[in-house]
Hints:
Helix content: 40-55%
Order of helices and strands: HHHHEHEHEEHEHHEHHHEE
Distance between the termini: 45 Å
CATH class of one domain: Alpha Beta
Number of helices: 12
Shape: globular
Number of strands: 8
CATH architecture of one domain: 3-Layer(aba) Sandwich
Oligomer: single chain
CATH topology of one domain: Rossmann fold
Largest sheet: 8 strands, mixed
Structural class: alpha/beta
Amino acid sequence: MNEKQYVKQFFSKNKQAYVTSSTHANGSDLSVLVDWLQPNKDMIALDIATGGGHVARKLAPNVNRLFATDITKEMLEYTSTHLQLYSNINYIIADAESLPFLDNTFDIITCRIAAHHFPNPDRFIQEVQRVLKSNGRFLLIDNVGLEEPSIDIFINSLEKMRDYSHSRSLKITEWEKLFSSNHLIVLKQERRKKTLPYNEWVHRALDNKSKIEEVKQYILAANTKIKDYFQIKAEHEEIKEFTIDEWMVLCQKLSVQS
Protein backbone atom coordinates (compact mmCIF):
# COMPACT_ATOMS: atom_id res chain seq x y z
CA MET A 1 0.00 0.00 0.00
CA ASN A 2 1.46 3.39 -1.01
CA GLU A 3 1.30 6.58 1.05
CA LYS A 4 -1.80 7.97 -0.66
CA GLN A 5 -3.69 4.73 -0.16
CA TYR A 6 -2.78 4.96 3.54
CA VAL A 7 -4.24 8.48 3.63
CA LYS A 8 -7.49 7.32 2.02
CA GLN A 9 -7.76 4.36 4.38
CA PHE A 10 -7.00 6.45 7.46
CA PHE A 11 -9.43 9.29 6.75
CA SER A 12 -12.18 6.98 5.52
CA LYS A 13 -11.99 5.17 8.86
CA ASN A 14 -11.70 8.35 10.97
CA LYS A 15 -13.93 10.75 9.02
CA GLN A 16 -16.29 11.52 11.91
CA ALA A 17 -13.45 12.23 14.34
CA TYR A 18 -12.01 14.92 12.07
CA VAL A 19 -15.33 16.75 11.75
CA THR A 20 -15.77 16.87 15.54
CA SER A 21 -12.09 17.20 16.54
CA SER A 22 -11.56 20.21 18.83
CA THR A 23 -8.10 20.71 17.31
CA HIS A 24 -9.57 21.03 13.81
CA ALA A 25 -12.97 22.59 14.52
CA ASN A 26 -11.59 25.33 16.77
CA GLY A 27 -8.39 27.34 16.80
CA SER A 28 -7.41 30.97 16.61
CA ASP A 29 -6.39 30.52 12.97
CA LEU A 30 -10.02 29.99 11.92
CA SER A 31 -11.07 33.23 13.59
CA VAL A 32 -8.51 35.33 11.65
CA LEU A 33 -8.58 33.42 8.36
CA VAL A 34 -11.07 35.76 6.68
CA ASP A 35 -9.20 38.86 7.88
CA TRP A 36 -5.95 37.56 6.40
CA LEU A 37 -7.44 36.58 3.02
CA GLN A 38 -9.77 39.57 2.53
CA PRO A 39 -12.21 37.66 0.29
CA ASN A 40 -15.11 39.20 -1.58
CA LYS A 41 -18.25 37.99 -3.34
CA ASP A 42 -16.62 38.08 -6.79
CA MET A 43 -13.96 35.53 -5.87
CA ILE A 44 -13.65 31.81 -6.56
CA ALA A 45 -11.88 29.88 -3.81
CA LEU A 46 -10.32 26.45 -3.45
CA ASP A 47 -9.87 24.59 -0.16
CA ILE A 48 -7.38 21.75 -0.67
CA ALA A 49 -7.69 18.63 1.52
CA THR A 50 -10.75 20.11 3.18
CA GLY A 51 -11.06 17.26 5.70
CA GLY A 52 -13.85 18.18 8.11
CA GLY A 53 -14.63 21.31 6.06
CA HIS A 54 -13.78 23.80 8.80
CA VAL A 55 -12.09 26.30 6.46
CA ALA A 56 -14.83 25.86 3.85
CA ARG A 57 -17.47 26.75 6.46
CA LYS A 58 -15.65 29.99 7.33
CA LEU A 59 -14.82 31.02 3.77
CA ALA A 60 -17.95 30.06 1.79
CA PRO A 61 -20.17 32.94 3.02
CA ASN A 62 -17.54 35.43 1.86
CA VAL A 63 -16.90 34.27 -1.72
CA ASN A 64 -18.89 33.63 -4.89
CA ARG A 65 -18.05 29.92 -5.15
CA LEU A 66 -15.83 27.55 -3.22
CA PHE A 67 -14.43 24.21 -4.37
CA ALA A 68 -13.69 21.84 -1.48
CA THR A 69 -11.39 18.99 -2.48
CA ASP A 70 -10.17 15.89 -0.70
CA ILE A 71 -8.47 12.69 -1.83
CA THR A 72 -10.78 10.59 0.37
CA LYS A 73 -14.29 10.16 -1.05
CA GLU A 74 -15.81 9.00 2.25
CA MET A 75 -14.35 11.96 4.12
CA LEU A 76 -15.71 14.39 1.51
CA GLU A 77 -19.17 12.81 1.48
CA TYR A 78 -19.39 12.92 5.27
CA THR A 79 -18.25 16.55 5.40
CA SER A 80 -20.70 17.62 2.70
CA THR A 81 -23.62 16.49 4.87
CA HIS A 82 -22.49 18.93 7.57
CA LEU A 83 -22.22 21.85 5.14
CA GLN A 84 -25.59 21.60 3.41
CA LEU A 85 -26.46 25.17 4.40
CA TYR A 86 -23.75 26.45 2.03
CA SER A 87 -25.13 26.14 -1.49
CA ASN A 88 -22.03 27.66 -3.12
CA ILE A 89 -19.67 24.80 -2.20
CA ASN A 90 -18.74 22.18 -4.80
CA TYR A 91 -17.14 18.94 -3.59
CA ILE A 92 -14.42 17.41 -5.75
CA ILE A 93 -12.42 14.23 -5.12
CA ALA A 94 -8.87 15.36 -5.91
CA ASP A 95 -5.23 14.72 -5.15
CA ALA A 96 -3.49 17.85 -3.82
CA GLU A 97 -0.48 16.97 -5.98
CA SER A 98 -2.54 16.69 -9.19
CA LEU A 99 -5.45 19.11 -9.14
CA PRO A 100 -8.20 18.70 -11.80
CA PHE A 101 -8.47 22.41 -12.57
CA LEU A 102 -7.30 24.72 -15.34
CA ASP A 103 -4.39 27.11 -14.88
CA ASN A 104 -5.11 30.48 -13.25
CA THR A 105 -8.58 29.52 -11.98
CA PHE A 106 -8.72 30.63 -8.34
CA ASP A 107 -8.51 33.96 -6.54
CA ILE A 108 -7.91 32.24 -3.18
CA ILE A 109 -6.46 28.86 -2.22
CA THR A 110 -6.33 27.44 1.31
CA CYS A 111 -4.88 24.31 2.87
CA ARG A 112 -5.14 23.75 6.63
CA ILE A 113 -3.60 21.02 8.81
CA ALA A 114 -3.18 18.66 5.87
CA ALA A 115 0.10 19.18 4.03
CA HIS A 116 2.02 16.89 6.41
CA HIS A 117 0.09 14.04 4.74
CA PHE A 118 1.40 14.92 1.26
CA PRO A 119 4.34 12.71 0.17
CA ASN A 120 5.45 15.24 -2.48
CA PRO A 121 5.02 18.78 -1.10
CA ASP A 122 6.98 20.18 -4.05
CA ARG A 123 4.27 18.94 -6.45
CA PHE A 124 1.58 20.33 -4.15
CA ILE A 125 3.08 23.83 -4.25
CA GLN A 126 3.61 23.60 -8.02
CA GLU A 127 -0.09 22.79 -8.38
CA VAL A 128 -1.10 25.65 -6.08
CA GLN A 129 0.98 28.03 -8.17
CA ARG A 130 -0.48 26.66 -11.41
CA VAL A 131 -4.19 26.97 -10.54
CA LEU A 132 -3.87 30.26 -8.62
CA LYS A 133 -4.47 33.47 -10.55
CA SER A 134 -1.72 36.07 -10.80
CA ASN A 135 -1.81 38.16 -7.62
CA GLY A 136 -4.05 35.49 -6.06
CA ARG A 137 -3.56 34.57 -2.41
CA PHE A 138 -2.61 31.24 -0.88
CA LEU A 139 -3.01 30.50 2.83
CA LEU A 140 -1.18 27.51 4.31
CA ILE A 141 -1.66 26.38 7.89
CA ASP A 142 0.17 23.31 9.09
CA ASN A 143 2.27 21.65 11.75
CA VAL A 144 5.95 22.32 11.10
CA GLY A 145 9.18 20.50 11.83
CA LEU A 146 12.12 22.01 13.63
CA GLU A 147 15.65 23.02 12.63
CA GLU A 148 17.08 21.17 15.65
CA PRO A 149 17.54 17.59 14.31
CA SER A 150 16.73 15.67 17.50
CA ILE A 151 13.51 17.63 18.06
CA ASP A 152 12.51 17.35 14.41
CA ILE A 153 13.07 13.58 14.40
CA PHE A 154 11.10 13.17 17.63
CA ILE A 155 7.94 14.96 16.47
CA ASN A 156 7.86 13.40 13.01
CA SER A 157 8.50 9.94 14.46
CA LEU A 158 5.76 10.47 17.03
CA GLU A 159 3.26 11.61 14.40
CA LYS A 160 4.05 8.62 12.18
CA MET A 161 3.72 6.22 15.11
CA ARG A 162 0.30 7.57 15.97
CA ASP A 163 -0.91 8.15 12.38
CA TYR A 164 0.43 5.94 9.59
CA SER A 165 -0.83 8.41 6.97
CA HIS A 166 1.57 11.10 8.26
CA SER A 167 4.29 11.83 5.71
CA ARG A 168 6.38 14.64 7.19
CA SER A 169 5.98 18.04 8.82
CA LEU A 170 8.32 20.28 6.83
CA LYS A 171 10.48 22.94 8.41
CA ILE A 172 9.57 26.56 7.73
CA THR A 173 12.80 27.03 5.79
CA GLU A 174 11.81 24.15 3.50
CA TRP A 175 8.41 25.69 2.83
CA GLU A 176 10.01 29.05 2.13
CA LYS A 177 12.28 27.51 -0.51
CA LEU A 178 9.30 25.88 -2.21
CA PHE A 179 7.40 29.17 -2.22
CA SER A 180 10.36 31.08 -3.63
CA SER A 181 10.98 28.59 -6.43
CA ASN A 182 7.30 28.76 -7.42
CA HIS A 183 6.95 32.57 -7.52
CA LEU A 184 4.97 32.82 -4.30
CA ILE A 185 5.94 35.68 -2.03
CA VAL A 186 5.20 35.67 1.69
CA LEU A 187 2.93 38.54 2.76
CA LYS A 188 2.27 37.58 6.35
CA GLN A 189 3.13 34.77 8.73
CA GLU A 190 2.62 33.64 12.30
CA ARG A 191 4.22 30.79 14.19
CA ARG A 192 2.61 29.55 17.37
CA LYS A 193 2.50 26.74 19.89
CA LYS A 194 -0.66 24.67 19.64
CA THR A 195 -1.76 22.69 22.69
CA LEU A 196 -3.07 19.20 22.00
CA PRO A 197 -5.23 17.37 24.57
CA TYR A 198 -3.42 14.03 24.60
CA ASN A 199 -6.32 11.58 24.96
CA GLU A 200 -8.37 13.13 22.17
CA TRP A 201 -5.28 13.38 19.97
CA VAL A 202 -4.19 9.77 20.36
CA HIS A 203 -7.66 8.19 20.22
CA ARG A 204 -8.65 10.17 17.13
CA ALA A 205 -6.15 8.08 15.19
CA LEU A 206 -5.73 4.87 17.18
CA ASP A 207 -7.98 2.26 18.77
CA ASN A 208 -5.37 -0.49 19.22
CA LYS A 209 -4.36 -0.62 22.89
CA SER A 210 -0.81 -1.82 22.22
CA LYS A 211 -0.24 0.98 19.69
CA ILE A 212 -1.64 3.56 22.11
CA GLU A 213 0.69 2.26 24.81
CA GLU A 214 3.63 2.44 22.37
CA VAL A 215 2.90 6.10 21.68
CA LYS A 216 2.63 6.87 25.40
CA GLN A 217 5.90 5.16 26.25
CA TYR A 218 7.69 6.92 23.40
CA ILE A 219 6.66 10.28 24.82
CA LEU A 220 7.44 9.37 28.43
CA ALA A 221 10.90 8.12 27.42
CA ALA A 222 11.84 11.42 25.77
CA ASN A 223 14.72 13.36 27.29
CA THR A 224 14.25 16.55 29.30
CA LYS A 225 15.14 18.81 26.37
CA ILE A 226 12.35 17.32 24.24
CA LYS A 227 9.83 17.23 27.09
CA ASP A 228 10.51 20.89 27.84
CA TYR A 229 10.32 21.94 24.19
CA PHE A 230 6.95 20.28 23.60
CA GLN A 231 5.71 21.25 27.08
CA ILE A 232 4.69 17.69 27.85
CA LYS A 233 2.47 17.55 30.93
CA ALA A 234 2.06 14.19 32.67
CA GLU A 235 0.74 13.07 36.05
CA HIS A 236 1.40 9.61 37.46
CA GLU A 237 2.67 8.36 34.08
CA GLU A 238 -0.47 9.64 32.33
CA ILE A 239 0.02 12.27 29.64
CA LYS A 240 -2.41 15.18 29.83
CA GLU A 241 -1.32 17.47 26.99
CA PHE A 242 1.60 18.67 24.92
CA THR A 243 2.29 21.33 22.32
CA ILE A 244 3.37 21.28 18.70
CA ASP A 245 4.56 24.04 16.39
CA GLU A 246 2.06 25.39 13.88
CA TRP A 247 2.70 27.90 11.11
CA MET A 248 0.16 30.11 9.36
CA VAL A 249 1.48 31.82 6.24
CA LEU A 250 -0.16 33.98 3.59
CA CYS A 251 1.42 34.08 0.13
CA GLN A 252 0.72 35.91 -3.10
CA LYS A 253 1.44 34.68 -6.61
CA LEU A 254 3.63 37.11 -8.46
CA SER A 255 2.01 38.67 -11.50
CA VAL A 256 3.20 37.14 -14.74
CA GLN A 257 4.99 39.76 -16.82
CA SER A 258 4.32 39.80 -20.53
